[in-house]
Amino acid sequence: MAAMSPHIPGRGLQSPVGGDGPGVFQQGWSFTEHGKKAEVKLVNNPYDLEAWSVLVREAQSAAMIRARILYERLVSHFPTSGRYWRLYVEQEMRHHNHEHVEKLFQRSLMSVLHIDLWKCYISYVKDTKASLPSYREKLRQTYEFALDHVGIDYHSTSIWTDYITFLKNEDAQGTFAENQKSQALRKAYQRAVVTPLANLEQMWKEYNFFENTDNKMNAKRNIDTVSRHYLNAKRSAQEYDGIARGLIRGSTSVPMRGTPQESQQLLIWKRIINWERSNPTRTEDHAILVKRVLYSYEQCLLCFGHCADIWYEAALYLQRASEAGVGQHSARWAEEAAVIYNRAITGPLKDSLLLHFAYADFEEARSKFEGSEAIYNKLVEKRTIDPTLVYIQYMKFSQRTAGIKVARQIFKRAREDERIGHQVFVAAALMEYFINKDKTVAYRIFDLGLKSFGDEPQYILSFLDHLSHLTEDNNTRVLFEKSLSSMSPDKTSEIWEKFVEFESTVGDLASVINVEKRRTAALKNDDVRSKDTVMLVDRYKFLGLMPCSEVELKLIGHPSCLVSQSSGGGNQTTKRLEGGVGGGASGSGGGSLVMELREAAISKPDLQQMLPFKPSSVSGVGMNAVPGGCFPLPSELSNLLSRLPPPDCFHGPFVQLNELMALLDTSDGSEVIGRSGKRKRDGGEESDDDGSGGAPPINDIYRSRQQKRVHNIV
After folding, report:
1. What end-to-end distance do the CA atoms of the chain give, in Å?
2. Element of type H or E holding 680
């Protein structure tokens, strides 16, 4: 680590973790009961943070050789977690494994720009290099290296403060050395005060004090040089503090679950990124702006490394900056964009087709066709994904860059892969028809696909669409007959609908009626599509235009108006609608169908979106105790209870519920409460008296005040 900073690789040039990334969690590491239970949880969910915390606590007291196995699994599942990398490093440091520590820093520092991890790196250099003759120079390089990468972070104030303190403690002997020390301090201060940092005002006061004590004659000139930039930085720091309010920094990146808290945090990060892109510091140096924006993307990816759009937006921003830039910055930003893509597809999103395709297009735009081809080949060889779309995009890429012959070779390779879907044949045929203008080859490809996908309705429909554009009516009818005879009836409903539409377009009325009769016979088990009125509507509809109103369609029971919901209740509604009309043109049970349609129009909850009940271990006011904890109240009631005084503020009077219920049960209702709120006696006379005839209550405030008033008068 003597020359740590020069030997750390460029940002993202290698994945934080080698190999193919995390796989299925393997049990057998833990020796404790709690640890074994945690391992079982991780087999089902490798991103269960609570289970990982149990194993990490066990690893911190285990032997380093055994703990290292767990930490490697940990950082392979969470390669962007600065907290887990820091725990790993600190445990190696406690065992004085300096060689392992330096390798961990080389693997993590440049791709995990986490403040605490970088502070740990500086502490390591301080603790282990103090005995070197060039210690102060090494430590100065370490500070400069850290500030170059994380010095623009809003929370990097402590690193700046430590660096300035380090420079102040420099032992300078002689005028030249004193001048060098002053220049280094001035440079550090001026870099810090123009950066939006926390507690920037204190840094500015210290800088003013330094200038006034170092050289009063030049103090005003030096301060005025950076005062305007300081004011921009101060304003930006205040804006950032407001924009980032509510942000949870350093959270561990896990696959997106769509929770409200997760969405809120992502929204805050996107707000910060957009704010940085607006150039809040008003810098005229485009390189500084790009650096700040990229850093905000990096910080977001530490928490949302499984979010594909953040990776793509970061790479696209660098790509556009490269296209707009000039000179060495343009080339460097293009390479950094490639690094962003590479980190994404080798890290948490190694199976993301979206980012692989975007990376391939990026390489193609730079005329690096070998890189694009390598990306497609890598995807094709993956056994964990469906390669259908990969082959389609691979064929399109090959046609654009190498011609139709190479694209045909890719299609041949795809046909030998048993995992592909029918879409590959459709794409290849349409490519021949539209690009090569060869309808014969296109027809042969479609016909070839029938051997493998002749029972696939969507493939048949694609083939029929193609033939309809060629105006080959005879071949189209042959395909209809061939597919309907070979497919099971439960798959042919869309084919029959397409057949009716075809005959309505190119055939005569007799052929249309003939197809409808055959359709009725074939779909006799389908209570909806086999209805005469439904088929009549299908005969006359065209491009969304219907021959009757929506209400009539609902009464008829046309499939286009059936309500389908993802929950179980929605499916039952659909079944009721299907059976609510008879088979003839005039439906039976129309009145009940209208009621069912009204019921179906009511929005119903999607039961699949309901979260499982998780009892709270903390008992609160009004919470219902259940086995395992307490049932939490809804958020509205919790908010109301938080505004009400606590229960211990109420000291009575208390209602004896049992006595009250017994009184109500035995009451004969002889006393009636009038509108005035006064009780009526048997004679109908109103009275303020409670009618009990007994002694007044002990704590009767009204009577006691009356007695005091009479006593004072007397």
Report:
1. 99
2. strand 679-680
Highest mean pLDDT among 101-105, 177-181, 654-658, 678-682: 101-105
Average pLDDT along the chain: 81
Closest CA relative to residue 17, chosen from 104, 133, 123, 135: 104
Distance from C-alpha of 152 to C-alpha of 148, rounded to nearest angstrom: 8
pTM, 2 dp: 0.71
Q: What is the pLDDT of residues 111-149, one digit of tens each?
A: 899 999 999 999 999 999 988 999 999 999 999 999 999
C-alpha to C-alpha distance for 187 and 214, rounded to whole angstroms: 13
The span from the CA of 520 to the CA of 497, in Å, is 11
Which one-letter DSSP state was computed for residue 686?
Answer: E
Half-sphere exposure of 123 (CA within 13 A, CB side): 12
Section 490-518 average pLDDT:
77
At position 659, the amino acid (one-letter code) is: E
Q: How far is CA 519 from CA 460, 522, 542, 582, in A?
A: 17, 5, 19, 18
In this structure, the dihedral spanned by the alpha carbons of residues 406, 407, 413 and 419, taken in order and rounded to 10 degrees, is 160
For residue 560 the two structure tokens come to: 């286009």
Cα–Cα distance, 566 to 415 (Å, whole number): 36
Question: What residue type is 512 in one-letter code?
Answer: V
**Please, what's the b/e burial string for 643-668 (b: 16 or more CB within 10 A of its CB; e: otherwise)?**
eeeeeeeeeeeeeeeeeeeeeeeeee
Q: What is the CATH number of domain 4-205?
A: 1.25.40.10
- Other C-beta atoms lying within 10 Å of the C-beta of residue 624: 10
